[in-house]
Amino acid sequence: MTVPSRIRSGSTSLGALRPSSAGNQEVDTSTGLGEPALILTYSWDRLIVDPVPGPRSPADFIGLRQLTPHVWAVPGNATLKPPHASTLPRLAAELPHAFALIDPHAGAAGITRQLNELIAHFTPESIDLLDVGGDILAHGDEPTLRSPLADALTLAACARAAKAAVRLLVAGPGLDGEVPADVLGPRLGPLLTTLTPAHARARRDHQLRTPLAPFRSCSSPGRHRPRRPRPMRGTRRRAPRPP
Predict the structure, then answer these.
(1) CA 139 centroid distance within chain
(2) Among 113, 28, 23, 119, which residue's Cα sits nearest to residue 65?
(3) Buried b / exposed e across 104-134, counting CB within 10 Å, b at 16+?
(4) Which residues contact 222 (CB under 8 A, 6 or more apart)?
């Protein structure tokens, strides 16, 4: 069993906590990428996967493992209570990462509490907040923005979390079809890396044939707090769209 050196947390985003070597040794988070990490993420799937609008809470699962009073790990053999469904147990079974569940039902304060418990438990070196697409940098008034809730919650939680180094990372700017890449460009920091098949460690000799999207860094999360979205007139209220 190894100690995660980084916590990855996120919105569409996965998030990661990077504990120091002095922390607990309860979770096997070996990633095969040089440093172990614990991935803290939502179970908030499209309706084609989960027929009930999400997000899922720990009470919807069977077989979770409690890490802290408010954080539950999702092992590969976890199941969902009918009629719910989630992709997290399969990811945990197929990938060399440890997964834990973001529970947004207590809002940003609840996610902050989860992060603070993990920071106290693992004493991480850093936290990476990872968003796919880049809508975590939205101001709220972009006409193509559709699902800012999950991003705003995790961003607010990381900004409020106890003292820990936090990096805000964006993978594939514009790829989720919300905020265009040319709009996000001025809000992004330097290019850190470009994901390639070498980053994907397939377990069944399965290899990606095309390069993936570039990774961009941003400034401190505290500098990118989303503006309140403008109300939309003439539309009916809908359940929040999964991130």
Answers:
(1) 20
(2) 28
(3) beeebebbbbbbbbbbebbbbbbbbbbbbbb
(4) 159
State how far the Cα of 187 lies from the Cα of 183, in Å rounded to an integer.
8
Quick one: tokens of 167?
Answer: 């990096």
Strand runs labelled E in the chain? 6-10, 14-19, 38-41, 61-62, 65-68, 71-73, 79-80, 98-101, 124-132, 165-171, 191-194, 214-217
What's the distance, CA 138 to chain centroid? 17
Q: Are 122 and 38 in contact (CB under 8 A)?
A: yes
Residue-wise over 138-147: b if at least 16 C-beta within 10 A, else e? Answer: bbeebeebeb
Whether cis (ω within 30° of 0) applies to the bond prior to 214 is no
Beta bridge partners of 231: none
Strand 71-73 relative to strand 191-194, pairing:
unpaired
Which one-letter amino acid corresponds to residue 55?
Answer: P
pLDDT tens digits, one per residue of 24-35: 444 444 434 445
Which token pair is 206? 């399965």
**Global pTM?**
0.75
Higher pLDDT, 11 or 68: 68
